[in-house]
Write a structure and sequence with these properties.
Strand order of the largest sheet: 1-5-2-4-3
Largest sheet: 5 strands, antiparallel
Radius of gyration: 16 Å
Distance between the termini: 37 Å
Length: about 210
Amino acid sequence: MTVTISRLYDNHNDAQQAVRRLEAAGVPHSDISIVANNSDSWFNTDKKVDRDGDGVDDRAEGAGTGAGIGAGVGGTAGLLAGLGLLAIPGLGPVVAAGWLAATAVGAAAGAATGGIVGALTQAGVSEEEAHSYAEGVRRGGTLVSARVADADQSRFDAILNESAINLRDRSAAWQKAGWKSFDPASKPYGAEEIRKERQQYGGALR
């Protein structure tokens, strides 16, 4: 039996390290996913090295449609080699790779709860947590999810817990400020709003 475990990170560097640790621990690339806010343009495709030498970052092809998700995954490259740009309702521009991102893009067309929430709940995440994870990405965070064997969950939980935020405490802080649930129709956070959010919670990029 497999379970889905997820964690939210205040910066993409910590999230990428979590992905690498999961891979090193034996979790297949196909069972890991990462979705990171890119409103501040930290993922600049102009600086990436393309795979075929034509000067075009193939990973960003299909941005906004999800067509490029997972394009670079396979072999020994690792999940992060497949990072690509796309848009998910309510989140705005994101950098993503893996199964959750692909599911979210597909769910966006018909899921009443929105692409990312629908994808998370479909994977077994509670609706309450799914809304909090989605809101976390909207506010500048990075979500890492993995499908792992039930018997191994505690070991992989420990790996993901390194540098992850306390989702319950963060959600409680948002609720005190008036937040209720993730709204896919809401306006995505801009770069300045994300900067203030990170400053408030101490999640400045490293």
